[in-house]
């Protein structure tokens, strides 16, 4: 699921509040694979560089932190 949400963010150029919430839930339940974490790394970098905008505003990418690794 995480990879699909990341793909959507790249297609739209926006990381939505809903997607962020879903990713938080998946991470909380540890329902992810290593490829999902790689996708999150890519998303995090895109948010940091401004390639993708966060709908929630701000630059906090806590959901994308490396604390899951």
List keywords for this structure.
single chain, 69 residues, mainly alpha, two-stranded parallel sheet, 3 helices, 6% strand
What does this structure look like?
The chain is mainly α and 69 residues long. The protein is 57% helix and 6% strand. The chain is built from 3 helices and 2 strands, in the order αβααβ. It has a two-stranded parallel ribbon. The relative contact order is 0.22. The mean pLDDT is 86.
Present the secondary structure layout.
Blueprint: H1 2-12, E1 14-15, H2 17-28, H3 34-49, E2 53-54
Parallel strand pairs: 1-2
Helix pairs in contact: 1-2, 1-3
Using DSSP, what is the number of strands? Answer: 2
Amount of helix: 55-70%
Number of helices: 3
Average pLDDT figure: 86
Going by helix content, strand content and strand pairing, the class is mainly alpha
Briefly say what this structure is:
57% of the residues lie in helices and 6% in strands. The chain has helices at residues 2-12, 17-28, 34-49; strands spanning 14-15, 53-54. Strands 1-2 form a two-stranded parallel sheet.
